[in-house]
Amino acid sequence: MTRLTAWFSEGRSTGKHTLPFVVILLSVTILASAANLLLPADSMFYVSTYTITLLGKYLCYAMLALAVDIIWGYCGILSLGHGAFFALGGYAMGMYLMRQIGDRGVYGNPLLPDFMVFLDWKELPWFWLGMDQFWFAMLMAVFVPGLLAFVFGWLAFRSRVTGVYLSIMTQALTYALLLAFFRNEMGFGGNNGLTDFKEILGFSLQADSTRVALFLITAILLAVIFVISQKILASRLGKVVLAIRDSESRSRFIGYRTDRYKVWLFVYSAVIAGIAGALYVPQVGIINPGEFSPINSIEMVIWVAVGGRGTLIGAVIGALLVNYAKTRFTAIMPDAWLFALGAMFVLVTLYLPKGLMGLYGQLKAKRNSVTKKESQA
Amino acid sequence: MNDMVPVLVEIEATSEEAVLPIFQYLVEGSLHYIKTSKQLVAQVEVSGVTRYKDLLTGQVVADLSKSDVDKIRVNNTLRVYLRNAIARIQLSAKSPSVRESAVRSLLSKLDQETVATLESLYPNETNKKVKEAMALALAMNTAAQTTLAPSNRIAAIEKMSTSLESDVRNLLTQLTRDDNPAVVSAANDALETIAQRVNRFAFVDQLFFGLSLGSVLLLASIGLAITFGVMGVINMAHGEMIMLGAYTTYVVQLIMPNYIDYSIWVAIPAAFLVSGLMGVLIERLVICRLHGRPLETLLATFGISLILQQLVRTIFSPLNRQVSTPSWMSGSWEINPVLSLTLNRLYILAFALLVFIVLVVVLKKTSLGLNVRAVSQNRNMAKAMGVKTHWVDAMTFGLGSGIAGIAGVALSQLTNVGPNLGQSYIIDSFMVVVFGGVGNLLGTLVAAFTLGIATKFLEPTTGAVLAAILVLVFIILFIQKRPKGLFPQKGRAAE
Q1: Which among A225, B207, B211, B443 could bridge B437 via Cys, Cβ 3.0 to 4.6 Å?
Q2: CATH for the stretch A2-367
Q3: CA distance B198 to A86
Q4: Residues B256 and B392 reside in one and the same domain
Q5: Contact state of A345 with B306 under an 8 Å Cβ cutoff
Q6: Are B286 and A169 in contact (CB < 8 Å)?
Q7: What is the pTM of this model?
């Protein structure tokens, strides 16, 4: 433990928000989990399993926001297609969970998932092979989004596609995948996607303990990724990334291969999105092509914009706040949510270019300058 | 009942076109007679009420209820006879087009009587098209007669090979199973010739659908191309401008329900104004404050698009709205039996080209156009020369949005009008702009038609979804080679 705190406090490289963030995140999740498992259901402090799952979902979104922030906030690449990486990770997990159903499906086929029996398929397509192994499915959950990001990024960054052009291309990418996954012939359940999951690694997905465990794992992974990302961005590589954001051509003229930095950062971001997707699916119990829809990807961007891009903590706070607002809004007045979301896009870009974190910084700066003036007087 | 046939044959022989209505009412089963007077009447619907019409005068007989009349029943044999008789009567009709369609309708049911009628009418026929059709019918008859000399039949088959009628193809397919090998090979050759021609027309048909899709893409993307070219920002609410135009058409039709045929002429300027003013409003309130931050502009306009969609959902309901097509735009232009072009698509194609030409003229010949081009080439220099760039920005945005509104009018004639109308075209429009090159109208034109035609030619082999995916992948690869599109703007920027 002491070594851990020493690691955190070593230099300023980890950022001043990291330690409080990790501590708050982990203590809240542990307290909530304990309140769910240990307290009786009628206790005042009891946390329902529904809430646990909801919180777990928010944490997945927070991880996704982190992925978007790393490339948008730190490298100036506005991706409108991160939903694609998230969904691909989710599909990898979904395929594993689908294979775990085994012969407990409606058709009772030990090998084929229900939708394949329904489509009258005789054998498992090649890309489903091995997906019954947890380790292989998890490898795919990070490998496939990473590979896609690498191919796309390599093509796009090498030919210097930047700015709005790149944003539009990423949107086209996720749109193309949306269309593709809607097709039944693709072998991913078409319109309905993958659902009716039973268990993960032998633990029932309906059980409270599994839910809590998934929630805890999500929180721990979020903390780990947060710390690693903070380290990466504070390193020399991170400095180059910032330089590319602020002036790409100047960085290139100085001699940095900006395209390579961008590609690898893009891949890293996509892998995080894939992990978030893989954690998301067992908690919500379904993955369908709707996750690829362009509007989902663009919503992620607004989480980051609200929280404050260019700060990892801002992305997490933005994702939690916006999604909490969404849950409340859609419960009370569903029609108003799109108005609120639309207004959020406009107002944040107009009046809060640095998000809530920027607002916090401004207020603090103001207070400091006021106290300074007072002390001078 | 079959004893009616001789009587009808007699009627057919004595009189001409005048008996046509009787025969037609009889086939439809609406011919009745009054029980007391045995007078023939036809059952007709007059504003939803069943009435009876005197056959000779055409007047509605007053005070006649269902119990006063009896229906004249017909059976299938009679119906077959009646249909052929109607066609035969029409053969001697005055209008050549009626005669021609009568001959064509007879092709599938040639019997001896009809052939006799055709043979008697053929030498006296003056209209070229009718004569050709008759010759075809007679040739089909000759070819089908197994008792005739093979040389005659083969000559007839050769004559048939110039036709595209499906009846001709059916007959030829039958003839390929004929006993005479010479006839069989002639029939096969004829089928081959016909198949080639049908393929050629199928190609034209596909091309037409491609051009039609291209014209829609052109209308949807050209406004986007202008705003992107001049201001360097992507307007994510562009699709919603299209949607507003479509809803304007709907509202105009609500206001003038009795003048649907003229509503389009009101809807086009109205849609231009509604969408254009909305565009100016968006530019003044939001976009001008985000100057020089294209990514933020993209996000803000996306927020606007969400608000506009939800606004329309709240005002008009989330369901699709039906927009009627003016009568002069419905129907199709039938060129031959295998090729017919729908009129609404044809008009929209012409309209898209017209809009394009008008836009080119506006940009090349007006002072607004001069300013727009100046700002798009070098904003700072234009500003230094005294061009009011703020004003140009607002006008450009208004113009681009107004054209999107016009696109909405056109789209309302092709698809359902709903809150998501704009969304379904926006990504394709972006692809057109990216493919064509920013700020280049000619590039947009070429890109729109290329993508439209490519999509329609891929669809039969790959299916619609895969075609869309392939086109997207192609564009992603294309901008590797040419990141600035087909026709890049020339400049000396380092980026």
Answers
A1: B443
A2: 1.10.3470
A3: 48
A4: yes
A5: yes
A6: no
A7: 0.81
